Structures are given as structure tokens and as C-alpha cells.
Q: What sequence folds into this?
């Protein structure tokens, strides 16, 4: 059985296109093999902006942490453990104001930890998480793929590669706020169909 972690970041719940497309990918995967799904809904997790206090908790040895520090460190530790336990990861990512949701940024701020998920060397940074298949399902109201206005894709490639994930696949559903919505969804469904055959292969 494969463990698949789904990280959603939309504010729209059941009405979210990025989440619904990611669930469609999960359905396709489950048709070919048995999978166990772990859901991390960042709208429900409600991570606050990262603070110096929380970063200080990470830097404090576990045996020296106060109860507050232990509680703060446990949040990051839990998110990182979810990544480590997964055989594959799916990120459902809507576009908000040309970027990723702030909830997803808060998530990455907690899973990118020096000495835990990456380290710096004389040759540059090195990701410490074991590489595994990662799918990113992006939903956009307009058309951004391959343009300078698409700040999501390079950021996500850099961020995920920074912690060790380089087996990346992207699904793009674009034009969702235009008359081309149906065409955009159809193209995304085709990408999902193709990806479902290779993601856990």
C-alpha cells in the first residue's frame, strides 16, 4: 500500500477546483492500486505567520525547551513527519493575486528547517528529505503558464527542490474565470489521466 499525502490550500472547501482536481487524481490512483490518503487542509490547520519565538523553539535542544517551545516545535515536526511518511505528495494550489496562498507559504516556512530538511554546504544548499514523486495541481482564473506572471511555478520548483524534492509534475487548469473554463478543465483532466499512470509507478 502506498501512502499519499494531499496538501490543500484553497479557501473554498468543496467548491475548490484545485482540491477537486487533486481528488480526481487520487481517485484515478486508487483505481490501479491500494493507497492510503493523508489529508492536510491548510485552511483548517490555520497556521499563523512564522515568528521569532517559533524559530527559537526549533533552535533550542529538545531537552531544554519550555512547554511553550515544545508545543511550537511539535507543529513543524508533525508537518515534516507527514512528508517523510508519504510515498508521494500532491499539492493542490490555487492562484491568489499571482502567487500561492499565504497558508501554503506559512506551511513551507515550517517544513524548510536548517539541519532538518536542508543544509548549507560550500557548494550551496542540499535538501535532506528523500526524493519522491510530487504532483502540483494548479488552478488559475486566467492564463499564466509559461509567462512572467506565473510566479507560482518557479517558486514551487525552487522551494520543493530546496528540501530535496526533484521528481515534480505539474497539472495546470487555466482560464477558469473566462469563457474557456470548460476547455481548461478538460485539459487538466487529460493531464491528470496521464499523470495517474506514472505518479506511483
A:
Amino acid at each position: 500500500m502506498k501512502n499519499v499525502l494531499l496538501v490543500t490550500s484553497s479557501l473554498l472547501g468543496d467548491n475548490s477546483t484545485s482540491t477537486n482536481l487533486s481528488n480526481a487524481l487520487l481517485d484515478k490512483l486508487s483505481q490501479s492500486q491500494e493507497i492510503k490518503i493523508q489529508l492536510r487542509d491548510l485552511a483548517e490547520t490555520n497556521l499563523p505567520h512564522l515568528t521569532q519565538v517559533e524559530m527559537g523553539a526549533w533552535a533550542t535542544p529538545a531537552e531544554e525547551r519550555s512547554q511553550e517551545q515544545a508545543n511550537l516545535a511539535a507543529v513543524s515536526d508533525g508537518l515534516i513527519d507527514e512528508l517523510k511518511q508519504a510515498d508521494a505528495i500532491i499539492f493542490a494550489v490555487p492562484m491568489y493575486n499571482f502567487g500561492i496562498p499565504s497558508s501554503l507559504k506559512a506551511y513551507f516556512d515550517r517544513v524548510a528547517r536548517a539541519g532538518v530538511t536542508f543544509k548549507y554546504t560550500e557548494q550551496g544548499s542540499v535538501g535532506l528529505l528523500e526524493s519522491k514523486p510530487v504532483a502540483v495541481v494548479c488552478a488559475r482564473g486566467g492564463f499564466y503558464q509559461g509567462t512572467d506572471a506565473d510566479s507560482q511555478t518557479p517558486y514551487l520548483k525552487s522551494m520543493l527542490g530546496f528540501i530535496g524534492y526533484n521528481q515534480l509534475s505539474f497539472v495546470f487548469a487555466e482560464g477558469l474565470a473566462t469563457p474557456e473554463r470548460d476547455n481548461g478543465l478538460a485539459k487538466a483532466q487529460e493531464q491528470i489521466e496521464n499523470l495517474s499512470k506514472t505518479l506511483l509507478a
